[in-house]
């Protein structure tokens, strides 16, 4: 029996109730991401799907006493459809990660078809969900999902997100290491895409614009762009960032839920169908986005850039055009 007080506390700690589905929940990212989502009090129904192992992850998470039901699903018995039914948010970290020496683009051949097939299931079973893509290469997998949703007639550009939050986390952390500050207070705008030269940190907009300069600044930009390689090398063949990525994914999914719940001024960067550079042929671009009940409420312009940043954005745009076309062409050739 609960005491009166305990019951009251329980109900008031659940301001909103949402179903979140994680596709790829047994992976290096999927497991800690599922744990962090289990701790989010806006999540009342957590559906964990993977080709293998999701029921175990679900049983494990389900013993944590937060106000959500956790269920694990496998491909058998139409598990994917059941996991997706009535989902408000779908987070996709399914796919293979990098090994040393690989770029994110090297993952394309394997991950493109995984993401395409999962997108088809989303279109059929959760057509109005907010969809957050973690699977790399994000610059190409997000356009793949868009094409699949378009051909199913359910595409809403406000509801599709490429998760670039890890670049923001890294930028905050790496800046703080140079400036000797608290990384939790370092706000950095990182725009463009999610791979190498498409990742553009706008250091001129930080409080360290004048303080971090010259070679230190160049090295910092390079570290933010290629920080993922540090993890890939340190793991020595066992994969790429999983724990920091889970934190980034949970932060982003949490922001989506805050927007859904109608909270004000919820802003995160994301790789979205963006008007910013469409006239130059760049259909998707990452910048700050205000999130609301419909998903994207407002896409923010980049703000003032230094000449050096203008040059970085130019390179990012050129690379993104190719990355995006690669995703779109994949779906044309492999519908
Ligand atoms: P992992 O190999 O540990 O886990 C992937 C999981 O996906 C496995 O459990 C596997 O069974 C599952 N899976 C594969 N095909 C599936 C399908 N058709 N349906 C459902 N599940 C399926 O890989 P990890 O480390 O979790 O990375 C996952 C993806 O996330 C990779 O593509 C990686 O490159 C990407 N990533 C993205 C980041 C970002 O910032 N957006 C950062 C780090 C990694």
TrEMBL record:
The keyword NAD applies. Residues 19-162 form the Lactate/malate dehydrogenase N-terminal domain. Keywords: NAD, Oxidoreductase, Tricarboxylic acid cycle. Substrate binds at residues 98, 104, 136, 170. The keyword Oxidoreductase applies. Its EC number is 1.1.1.37. NAD(+) binds at residues 24-30, 50, 111, 134-136, 245. It holds the Pfam family Ldh_1_C. One of its GO terms (molecular function) is L-malate dehydrogenase (NAD+) activity. Residues 164-331 form the Lactate/malate dehydrogenase C-terminal domain. It catalyses: (S)-malate + NAD(+) = oxaloacetate + NADH + H(+). Gene3D superfamilies: Lactate dehydrogenase/glycoside hydrolase, family 4, C-terminal, NAD(P)-binding Rossmann-like Domain. GO terms for cellular component: mitochondrion. One of its GO terms (biological process) is tricarboxylic acid cycle. PROSITE patterns: MDH. InterPro entries: L-lactate/malate_DH, Lactate/malate_DH_C, Lactate/malate_DH_N, Lactate_DH/Glyco_Ohase_4_C, Malate_DH_AS, Malate_DH_type1, NAD(P)-bd_dom_sf. The active site is at 194 (proton acceptor). Belongs to the LDH/MDH superfamily. MDH type 1 family. PANTHER family: MALATE AND LACTATE DEHYDROGENASE, MALATE DEHYDROGENASE, MITOCHONDRIAL. Homodimer. This is Malate dehydrogenase. It comes from Babjeviella inositovora NRRL Y-12698.
């Amino acid at each position: 029996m609960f005491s009166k007080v305990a019951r009251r506390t329980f109900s008031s700690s659940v301001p909103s109730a949402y179903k979140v589905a994680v596709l790829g929940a047994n992976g290096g990212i999927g497991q800690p991401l599922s744990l962090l989502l289990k701790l989010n009090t806006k999540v009342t129904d957590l559906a964990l799907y993977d080709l293998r192992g999701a029921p175990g992850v679900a049983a494990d998470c389900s013993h944590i006493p937060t106000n959500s039901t956790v269920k694990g699903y496998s491909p058998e018995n139409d598990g994917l459809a059941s996991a997706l039914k009535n989902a408000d948010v779908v987070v996709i970290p399914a796919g293979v990660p990098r090994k040393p020496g690989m770029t994110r683009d090297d993952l394309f051949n394997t991950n493109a078809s995984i993401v395409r097939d999962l997108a088809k299931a989303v279109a059929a079973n959760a057509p109005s969900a907010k969809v957050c893509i973690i699977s790399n290469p994000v610059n190409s997998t997000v356009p793949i999902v868009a094409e699949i949703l378009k051909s199913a007639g359910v595409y809403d550009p406000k509801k599709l997100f490429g998760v670039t939050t890890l670049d923001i986390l890294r930028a905050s952390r790496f800046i703080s290491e140079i400036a000797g500050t608290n990384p939790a207070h370092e706000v950095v705008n990182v725009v463009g895409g999610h791979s190498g030269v498409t990742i553009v940190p706008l250091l001129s907009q930080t409080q360290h614009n004048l303080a971090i300069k010259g070679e230190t600044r160049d090295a910092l930009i390079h570290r933010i762009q290629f920080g993922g390689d540090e993890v890939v090398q340190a793991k020595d063949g066992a994969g790429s960032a999983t724990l920091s990525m889970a934190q980034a994914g949970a932060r982003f999914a949490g922001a989506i839920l805050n927007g859904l719940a109608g909270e004000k001024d919820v802003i995160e960067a994301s790789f979205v169908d963006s008007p910013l550079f469409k006239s130059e042929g760049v259909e998707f671009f990452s910048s700050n986005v205000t999130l609301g009940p419909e998903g994207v409420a407002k896409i923010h312009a980049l703000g003032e850039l230094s000449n050096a940043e203008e040059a970085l954005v130019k390179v990012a745009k050129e690379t993104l055009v190719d990355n995006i076309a690669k995703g779109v062409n994949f779906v044309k050739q492999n519908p």
